[in-house]
Backbone:
């Protein structure tokens, strides 16, 4: 019986995660003025983001502020940056107020982690 | 006629032609004649110029994207006319943004010599419309994210005016794709 409940728990968790990723995909629409997953635009590409040092995509013209930030992108640093890019890295060229909702940031990050 | 009753791109275009001029000229006036913008502090001017330059870079890319769509040979005549009209709006936005950046003492970014667009994925008119709709949706969000950042409120007003124009583009493109043109009460 415990196994059945455990299985339901796993299924429920998997379903919740999928819903978050789908929401994250929709939220990613907000980023499409400047970003794409696979290629650089006004902003740099997002594929390969996790574990990448900020300001390190070859050939992309970053702000000095981001290049000097020493940020390595992971769940935590992305969450902080997305909440308020200009407060997180003053001088960044990402002149966007941010994503104030923590759940939305989490969904967006979940989507980005598996999008490429 | 409202967006809810638009059934064809031609109808959408006619509606757009009759209604878009007022919004754009309002933005141009606010940007170019806004004395407060010129009287702002040096710090505000630098920061505002930076925000405008990011917007300008996105506008220049949108102009290039519409050019790719227009030259793709995939668009039927009324849709092509619509794309060219929307491209014209982006050109107006870019011109006003560049002039304002210069007035604020900044250096306006130039268009890139080459843009990366997923041309290999554009195989039909719907593909082009969907690509353009994605750019317009992003533009709405980008301007929305910029509006509260300006040190000068004239610039916030002008950015909001451009946002309204981008939102109309997005709605018309969604409608042309057979999607709900206004899927929610708020944009984000």
Residues:
């Amino acid at each position: 019986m415990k196994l059945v409940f455990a299985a339901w728990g796993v299924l429920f968790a998997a379903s919740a995660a999928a819903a978050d990723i789908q929401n994250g995909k929709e939220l990613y629409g907000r980023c499409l003025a400047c970003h794409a997953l696979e290629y650089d635009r006004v902003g740099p590409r997002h594929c390969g983001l996790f574990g990448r040092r900020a300001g390190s995509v070859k050939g992309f013209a970053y702000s000095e502020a981001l290049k000097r930030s020493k940020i390595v992108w992971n769940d935590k640093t992305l969450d902080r940056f997305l909440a308020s890019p200009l407060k997180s890295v003053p001088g960044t060229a990402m002149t966007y107020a941010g994503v104030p909702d923590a759940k939305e940031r989490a969904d967006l990050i979940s989507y980005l982690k598996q999008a490429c | 006629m409202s967006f809810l009753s638009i059934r064809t791109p031609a109808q959408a275009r006619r509606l757009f032609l009759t209604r878009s001029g007022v919004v754009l000229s309002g933005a141009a006036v606010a940007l170019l004649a806004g004395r407060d913008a010129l009287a702002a502090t040096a710090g505000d001017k630098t920061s505002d110029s930076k925000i405008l330059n990011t917007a300008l870079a996105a506008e220049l890319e949108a102009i290039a994207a519409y050019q790719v769509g227009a030259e793709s040979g995939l668009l039927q005549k009324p849709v092509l006319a619509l794309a060219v009209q929307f491209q014209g709006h982006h050109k107006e936005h870019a011109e006003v943004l560049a002039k304002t950046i210069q007035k604020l003492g900044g250096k306006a970014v130039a268009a890139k010599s080459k843009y990366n667009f997923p041309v290999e994925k554009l195989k039909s008119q719907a593909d082009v419309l969907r690509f353009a709709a994605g750019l317009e949706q992003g533009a709405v969000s980008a301007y929305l994210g910029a509006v509260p950042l300006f040190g000068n409120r004239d610039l916030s007003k002008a950015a909001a005016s451009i946002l309204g124009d981008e939102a109309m583009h997005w709605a018309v493109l969604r409608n042309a794709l057979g999607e709900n043109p206004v899927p929610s009460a708020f944009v984000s």
In short: The CA atoms of residues 25 and 143 of chain B lie 18 Å apart. Confidence is low (pLDDT under 50) at residues 1-10, 12-25 of chain B.
